[in-house]
Queue: 2 jobs
Job 1
Amino acid sequence: MTGLLVAAIMMGTPLLLGSLAEVYVERTGVMNTAIEGTFLMGAWAAFVVTYTTHNLWLGLAAAIVAGVFTTLIYGVICIYLGQDQVVVGTAINILAMGLTAFLFRAQFGTPLSPLTVDPFPKIPIPVLSQIPVLGPALFEQNLLTYSVYVIAPLMIWVLHRTSLGLTVRSAGENPTAVDVAGIDVKRVRLLTVSFAGVLCGIAGAFYSIGFLGLFTETMIGGRGWIAFAICFLGNWSPRGAVLGTLVFGLAEAIAIQMQSSGALIIPNEVFIGLPYVLTIVLTVARKTFNVPEKLGVAYAIES
Amino acid sequence: MNRRVLDLIVTNVLAVVLGLVVSGLLILLLGKDPLHAYGTLISGVFRDQYTFGEIFVKATPLIFSGLAFALPFKAKLFNIGAQGQFYIGAVTAVAVSLWLGPLMPGPLVLLVALALTLVLSAVWAGLIGLAKAKRGSNEFLLSMMSTFVALALMNYLLRTFLREAKGEYPQTDPLLNATWLPVIVPDTRIHLGFVLALLAAIGCWFFLFRTKFGFRVRATGQNARAARMSGINPDRVYVLIFAVAGALAGAAGFTEVNGVQHMLVQGFNPDVGAQGIGIAILANANPIGVIFASILFGVLIVGGGIMGQLSGIPNSYINVMIGIVMIFVIVGNYVRARIETRREVRRVKAGDSK
C-alpha cells in the first residue's frame, strides 16, 4: 500500500506539472497541443546535458530551455500567425520525435548498453517521513516532487487571487475586454505558453533524470497527452488538475506494480489502457464543462 | 488554372523545398554533406523499378490516413485517432483472413475481410462522433485517447488469441497466399490496395463537392450554427463523418495487412496517423491533393530509408524532414493568406469589380 502511494506521488509529479501548465495555457485561450513533444524535448535535453556535464541542475536548466524553445515556436505560429493549433501541435510532435532521436544518435551513435546517469536522489525529510503510510509517500521523494508542493499551491493562488491570474483568465474568456484594457492579448498568451514550456520541460526531465536515469525515444509514450486530458477532466481548474493527477498517478502506479508482480490475472494491457479509458469515460460522462470561451480561437484585432 | 490553386501549389512547393534545406542543415551536425545525402535520396528512389514502386506502396496507407483527417477537417472536426482506427482495421483484417483463409476461396476472404474491417473501424470511430453529437464531448481528446486504447487492445490480442503458433514473438502467423491482395505492377510490391486508395480519394472528392451531404459537411465546417439554422442537422454530420473517417483509416489497416505485411507484427507503422495529418495539411484537405501529398511523403520515406542505408543517416531523419516541412507548409499557409488578402484589397481599391 505504501509502495503504491510512493509510486503514485512520484508518477504524478510530471503529470501535475504538465496539467497545471495546460490549465494556464488553456485559460488564456490556447490549447498546447505540442505538449507531448515538449515533454520529449525536455527529457532529451535533460539527459544529454546531465550525461555530458555530470550536473543534474544543468540538465534541468537545459530541459527548461528546450521546453521554452519548443513552446515558443508553437506559440508564435499559433498566436501571431493565427494557424490551427491541432495542426501545428502535430507538426511539432513529429519534429520532436524525429529530432530527439536524430540528435541522440548523432551524439552517441548506437551504444551497446543503454547510457545512464544517476537520477535525482530521494531525500527523506526528517520526522515527516516517519509518519506511517503517508510519510514515505509524501516526504521521501526527490527534489522535483518537492518543488511541486510549492508550485501547485502558488499556481492555484495566482490564478484565482491575483490580477495576473485575472488577466490570464480574461485572455481566454473575453480577449476583447483585455485588449480594450490596454493589455496585449497575444503577448499574454505567448508568455503563458512559454511559462508552460518551463513546466513541461521540467516534467519531461522528470522522466529522464528524475527517476530512470536514461533516455529512450519512446519514454514519454503518451504521458503528455494524459496531462493534457487531466486539464480537461479537471474542468480547467488547477485544483481539478491536482485531483485528476492523483487519480492518474495512482492508475499508473497500479499498472507498474501489476507489471512487476509477474503473476497476472488481469492482462497487463488493461492497466496500460486504463488511464486512457478513464479519460474517455469521464469525458463522455460529464456534459457541462467550464470550457474557456475562446479556447482554440486565434485572437485577431478587427481593423 | 484557378489562381488560388496556383498560389497553393507555388507556396507549398516553396515550403517543401525550404523545409528540406533547413532539415538538411542538421545533416552537417553528423559531419556529412547534405547535398550528397539528398543526392542519394533522389538517385536511390530511381535506382530500380522495385524501389520506385515502394513509393506507391508507402503512399497507399498514407492516402487513407490523410483522407481520414482531411474529411472531418472539412467539417471543422479533428480526427487525430487515425492511428488507432488503422490498428482496429489491421486487427480485423488479420483475424478474418487467418480465420476464413482455409475455409473459403481467396477473393471471397478478401471481400469479407474488407467489409468487416470497414464496419468495425467505422463503428469504432463513429462512437466518437456520437459522443460529440449527444454529449458535446471533445472529439479531439476522444480520438487521441482512443488510439492508445486501440494500441493496448492490439497488443493484448497479439499476445493471446492472435499469437503465432510458435508462440515466440507477439505477431500473428503469416496469411495464406490466396488471401494476399494481388500485386498489380510486376517486379514491385504495388498491390491492389493502391487502386483502392485512389478510388477512395476520388470518392471522397465526389462526396464532398458533388453530393448534398458533402455540402452539408462543408457548411457545418464553415458555420455550424448557420448550418443548423438552415435545417442541417450537424449531429448527424458528426456521426457520419467520423464513421467514414474511421472506415478510411481502417481500410489502410486492411491494405497493409493483406497487401504488404501479410501478417500482423507488434508496433508496425506507428506513424501512419500523424503523417496523415501532415499530408492533409499539405493538400489543404483536398482529397485529390491528398494523393499527391502522399506520394511526396512516400518519396521522403523511401528515399530517407535508402539515405540511411547508404549515407549512415539515422532513420529518425525522416521524421525530422517531415516535421520541418510541415512547419514550413503551415507558415506558408499564413503567408499565402496574407498575399491573397493584399491582392484583394488592391483589387477593391482599384475599383475593379470583376
Job 2
Amino acid sequence: MISTNNLSIGYRNKSGDTCIASNIDIDISEGELVGLIGVNGVGKSTLLRSLSGVQASLSGEIVISDKPLIKLSAEELAKTISVVLTEQPISKNLSVSELIALGRQPYTNWIGSLSKEDRAKIQTAIALVNIEALKDKRCFELSDGQLQKVLIARALAQDTPFIILDEPTTHLDMYHQAYVLKLLKKLTQETNKSILFATHEINLALQLCDKIIIMEKDKVSAGTPKELIAKNAFSNIFPSDLIYFDSESVSFKIRT
Amino acid sequence: MPYTARYKGLLLLLFVIVVLMALLNVSLGSVEIPLKDIFNILFTNTTSQESWQYIILEYRIPKVFTAIFTGSGLAVSGLLMQTLFRNPLAGPYVLGLSSGASLGVAIVIMGASVFGAGTAALLLSKWSLVIASRLGSLLVLLAVLLASAKLRDTMAILIIGLMFASLTAAVVSVLAYFSPAAQLQQYIFWSFGSLGNLSWQEVSILAVFWFLGIVLAVFCIKNLNTLLLGENYARSLGVKISTNRFIIIIATSLLAGSITAFAGPIAFVGLAVPHLIRQVIPTNDHKILLPAVIFGGAILMLACDIASQLPGSEYTLPINAITSLIGAPVVIWLLIRKQKFIF
C-alpha cells in the first residue's frame, strides 16, 4: 500500500539541509492499523507530513500503490491520502454535516455541488463513526471527543485508501482515547483502509495496532507489537531515569 | 455542502429588495419628480419636462448603478478577505488598497503644491484622480503580491498589508502638513467618498472591473469553502494554496481598487455586509454567501445613498460617514441580539 525506501526527512534551508531522520524503511499494507510513537520533537509530525506529501523529503522514495508519491498530482493525492490534524483553525461555525461534506471536495465539480454518490458517501462516513445524532450541530457545540469523531468522519468521506492522523487522542480522557483508537481499529477491519496515526498512548497502541513504528533520535524501527517487545525495542524510546518498559505487563512503569 | 436549497428563496427576496431599493433611489432626490413621470421616462421614454429626463437618465440612474457596483463589490472583497485570512476583522482594505489609492490621490492633489504649483492645473482633472488612485492601489498590490510570493504564511500577508497602510498614511500626513488649506480640503472631500457625478462612460468602466472581479470570485467559491477548514486541510484536499491566494487577492484588488478609484475610499460596507448576511443567512457555503453578499452590499449602499441625500433637503452628506452611521448600529444590534459570535 505505502512504503518508503531509504527515506530521509527534514527541512531544506538556504544554509543547507536539516536532516530530522534518515534510513527510514517502513511499509504499511492494506487494512493495517499502524501507530507511530516517539518522544516529543523526534520528528513524528515531519514524517507524517512527508508521507502525506505536504513536505518534500530530502532523499529516498515514498511509494503509494506502486506509484511514487512525487508523481501524484494534487488531485490524485487528495484521492489517495486523507488527514486528520489537531488544533487547526477550523471555522467552528461550520455544522457537522457541512464539515464532513467538505471531505468530498476532490470529487465535486468546479463549484462544489454534491452528487447523489457524494451524499451517499457522506452518509456512510457518518454511519461508520456513529455520529448521526450530531449531524445538525455546529462545531462549537461539540466536545473534544465528538469533534475528533467528526474529523475522522470527514477523512472517511474523502474516501481514500490511506488515512493519516496526527495525535488523534490529544485532549481526550482515557475512555475517549480508547474509544477513538478502537474506532480506528474497527475502520481498518470494516473498510480495509490503511490507517497511520502518531500517538503518545503507547499502552493503548500496543494493544490495538497491527504494526508499530518507533522513532528514535538516530533510527526508525517497525514491526508488530510482539516482535518489538521481543526485541526489547521500547526500552530506549525515553530517557531511562524516570520510567522503564515492563515487558511482563507490556506497559511503562515509574521507577520507584 | 448540503442543505443549500432552502436559502434560494431568501436570495430571491434579497434580489427583489435590491430592485425595489433601486427604484426608490431613482424616485428620490433634491428635485421632486412625480412617480408617474419617472416610470414614463424609464419605460416609455416620454416626459413632460426635458430637465426631468436629464436628471433621471444622466444623474440618478448612473448613481444607482454606481451604488450597486460599489456596495456589492466592496462586500464581496470583504467576504473574500475574511475567508482568506480566517479573520472577522478583515475587510476589502486590509491589503492596503485604499491607503495606496489615497497616496496616489494625495500626491496629485497636494503634491502639486508641494513640488511646484505649475503642474497643478494640468493634473487636477477628474480622470487624473481616478488614474492616480488606481496606480496607487496597484503599487501597493504589487508590493503585497511580491511579499506573498516569498511567504508561506498567509497571516504574515495581513500584517504586511497593515504595514503598507501605515506607511502610505504617513506619507499622506507629511504631504498634508505642507499643503495649503484649499488642497487639503479637496483631498478630504475625496476621502469622504461619493457615488454621484459618475458619467455613463465611467460607470461602464467600473462595471467591467466589477464583472471581472465577480467572475474570479465565483471561480474561487469551491476553494473558499475548503479554506474554512484551515490551510493544512485545504492542501490535503488538493487546493493549491498559493495559486488560490493569488486569485483571491487579484479579485479583491479588481473590485476594491477600481471602486476606490471612482467612488473614493468607502469604509465599512466591505467589513460589515458579510457579517450582516451571516446573521440573516446562517450558512458557511460561499455558493449562497457570495450572491447574498452581492445583494446585501447593493441594498446597504442604496439605502445609505437615500439617507445621505437627506430627503427633502438639498444637502448631500458624505457617503463614507453614512455607511458607518447606518451600518454600525445594525451590526451591533444583530450581534447583541444573538449573543453569540462564532467565526
